[in-house]
Amino acid sequence: MARIPSAMTRLADVDQPPASNPRPRFAWARFGNSPWPWLLPLAVVLVFVFLYPVIEIIRLSFTSATLINENTPYTTGSYATIWHSPDFISMLHVTLLFVIFSVVFQMALGFVIAQIVTIGQQRGLRGTVATRSAVLTAWAIPGVIIGIIWSLLYQESSSGILNYLIRPFTHHAIPFLSQPQVALISLTVANIWRGTAFSMILIYAGLQTLSAEVTEAAKVDGANAWQRLVRVTIPQLAPMLLLNLVLILIDTFNTFDMVLALTGGGPGRSTEVIALTIYDQIFQQLNLGIGAAYAVVLLTINLVMTVVYIRLVERSGQGRA
To answer: pLDDT tens digit string along 86-126?
Structure first.
């Protein structure tokens, strides 16, 4: 018969320290809680996919290379060509008009739609989901497809949908894409339609995080709808509105696919934005150095907007603290 261990023997076994953990078999286990083994693959991807192309573009911008001949000496001739180009200032002017009006109306319409959907959802009205889905459709469509769709709407022939609807009232076709000023307005309207969805998404998400108690307290204190909007809703939405502003600024500055499909920069160069100029210089004119210099200019604009956003966020955080 097996001997039953005594109580003292069992207590002695309990008092013994546990055996030390064996040495890990795999090298990955030796890092413990260090995040570097997991961040290293991502860092490699970022270097080769993002950092290296940026460095290569900056290097090419200091050459006069073309897609046919890349072996050229380093020079600042590409930047000098851009600076002395008679079309550079007009291109920046077109880009700024396109960006400013696009951003202002995208944020305004996105805010209005987000408010309407939020109020309808709070009151239990039907159709809020359908409204969100309809607005999101524009965000999901690629820019080239949007350009083709709007070109069908803007056509001045009998097949143009907008002119077909307007002709009974105007008795003539509107030159949506053939008159320079009208073409820029038409392009901006199409971009507003495209970008409103993104603004609506961000602002709608921000509205869902607002404190209902603060709004109700303002309502009890006698604040009307406009006062609640200006003094309660917008201040609480300020961080989201700032993020929305920076993101759509960067996105609009980099828009070229829709412009290429809708106007191609014409008529003349009346709708040629800086992103389309980069595409034209590299793939149409084969001027790799000049196209890279334009890309550096655009990169600088994006970096400036990013730094401004970071500074504003830091100040906002310090103010709250």
So the answer is: 888 889 999 999 999 999 999 999 999 998 888 888 787 77
Domain around 195: 87-277
Domain presence at residue 126: yes
Its pTM stands at: 0.81
3-state helix, strand, coil in the chain (%, to 5): 75, 0, 25
Q: Looking at the domain assignment, is residue 144 inside a domain? A: yes
Q: Is residue 233 a part of any domain in this protein?
A: yes
Give pLDDT, residue 2: 47
Instruction: Count how many residues are written for the chain.
Output: 321
Cβ neighbourhood burial of 220 (10 Å; 0-12, 13-18, 19+)? exposed
Task: Tell me which amino acid residue 142 is.
Answer: P
Phi, psi of 266 (to 5 degrees): -95, -175
Contact 69, 156 (CB under 8 A): no
Domain with residue 238: its CATH number is 1.10.3720.10
Separation between Cα atoms, residue 54 and residue 47, nearest integer Å: 10
Count other Cβ atoms within 10 Å, centred on residue 74. Answer: 12
Amino acid symbol at 24: P
β-bridge partners, 155: none
Is the predicted pLDDT of residue 221 greater than 60, yes or no? yes
Does residue 190 have a pLDDT over 90? yes
User: What tokens appear for 190 in the block?
Assistant: 């199409």
Residue 60 belongs to some domain of the structure: no
Domain count, the chain: 1
